[in-house]
């Protein structure tokens, strides 16, 4: 992730091969590794290869288990990734703003767009969806940011799919565009769109289906119950999906957009 020190390397029956890294006041553990490429005490620079994911220890399949602690207390690794992304975006914006020679065409719009700009850029479209369908603008924006990794995911960049929407049988029968991506299963079919706005509109129409009718029993200013209802209806499989989306809403005060739309 970024510069740090290898605090510990080891193995046990539960975690398998593991490595513990120290990044300032953050301690990151990676478990179930097939190979470890570093030793205790090594100094790391961002981008160094630390290990290779695997299936060692108590595991049902190849994966990477990450545990993150800040000042010794457990914290969500996604919070740290958000921070890293923010710093990266700010650094890129600062460099380009200072006129540093760069091939700007090689940097996508969404790589140059910091998070506040991302949200303000798509807020009008999200507010229009709230006017038409009653879906809180804050929920649309939070899902959009989370599902697309702030517009940086491969699915968003190449297919304008900002909500992780998979192809329905009808979508495929109509011969509409899609691309293959690994998700719950390898090579799953995801919808592709001509524009980001088309992706936003399809997301809204999806939430108008019977599957999500419980959501519409809540007002457009109640983002919390909207997210709970979306999760209950099976929109996402992540256990902390509601919490992660709410973190984005609260951090950037997206609920203000909901109130602006309300008469």
Sum this structure up briefly.
By secondary structure, this protein is of the alpha+beta class.
User: How many helical elements?
Assistant: 10
**Largest sheet report:** 7 strands, antiparallel
The span between the termini is 45 Å
> What is the CATH topology assignment of the largest domain?
Lysozyme
Kindly describe this structure:
This protein has about 260 residues and is an alpha+beta fold. It has 2 domains: about 5-75, Glucose Permease (Domain IIA) (Distorted Sandwich); about 110-260, Lysozyme (Orthogonal Bundle), CATH 1.10.530. About 40% of the residues lie in helices and about 20% in strands. The N and C termini lie far apart (about 45 Å). Strand 6 and strand 7 form a beta hairpin. The radius of gyration is 21 Å and the shape is globular. The strands form 2 sheets. Strands 1, 2, 3, 4, 5, 6 and 7 form a 7-stranded antiparallel beta sheet that branches. Helix 3 crosses helix 4, helix 3 packs parallel to helix 10 (about 255-260) and helix 4 (about 135-150) packs across helix 9. The protein has 10 helices and 9 strands.
Keywords:
single chain; 263 residues; alpha+beta; Glucose Permease (Domain IIA); two-stranded antiparallel ribbon; 10 helices; 41% helix; 19% strand
Map the helices and strands.
Blueprint: E1 4-12, E2 16-23, E3 26-36, E4 43-44, E5 51-53, E6 65-70, E7 73-75, H1 77-97, H2 109-112, H3 115-133, H4 137-148, H5 154-159, H6 169-173, E8 178-181, E9 188-191, H7 196-207, H8 223-232, H9 241-251, H10 255-261
Helix pairs in contact: 3-4, 3-7, 3-10, 4-9, 8-9
């Amino acid at each position: 992730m970024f510069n740090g020190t290898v605090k510990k390397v080891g193995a046990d029956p539960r975690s398998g091969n593991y490595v513990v890294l120290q990044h300032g006041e953050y301690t990151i553990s990676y478990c179930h590794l097939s190979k470890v490429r570093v030793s205790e005490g090594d100094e790391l620079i961002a981008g160094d290869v630390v290990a290779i994911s695997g299936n060692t220890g108590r595991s049902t399949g190849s994966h990477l288990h990450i545990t993150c602690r800040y000042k010794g207390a457990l914290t969500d690794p996604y919070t740290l990734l958000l921070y890293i992304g923010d710093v990266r975006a700010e650094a890129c914006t600062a460099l380009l703003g200072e006129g540093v020679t760069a091939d700007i065409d090689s940097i996508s719009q969404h790589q140059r767009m910091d998070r506040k700009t991302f949200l303000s850029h798509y807020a009008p479209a999200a507010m229009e969806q709230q006017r038409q369908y009653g879906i809180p603008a804050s929920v649309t924006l939070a899902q959009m940011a989370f599902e697309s990794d702030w517009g940086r995911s491969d699915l968003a960049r190449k297919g304008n799919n900002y909500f992780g929407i998979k192809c329905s049988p009808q979508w495929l029968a109509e011969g509409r565009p899609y691309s293959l991506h690994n998700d719950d299963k390898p090579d799953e079919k995801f919808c592709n769109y001509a524009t980001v706005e088309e992706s936003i509109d399809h997301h809204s129409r999806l939430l108008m289906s019977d599957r999500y009718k419980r959501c519409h029993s809540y007002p457009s200013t109640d983002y919390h119950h909207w997210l709970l209802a979306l999760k209950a209806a099976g929109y996402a499989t992540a256990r902390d999906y509601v919490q992660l989306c709410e973190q984005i809403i609260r951090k950037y005060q997206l609920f203000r957009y909901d109130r602006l739309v309300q008469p």
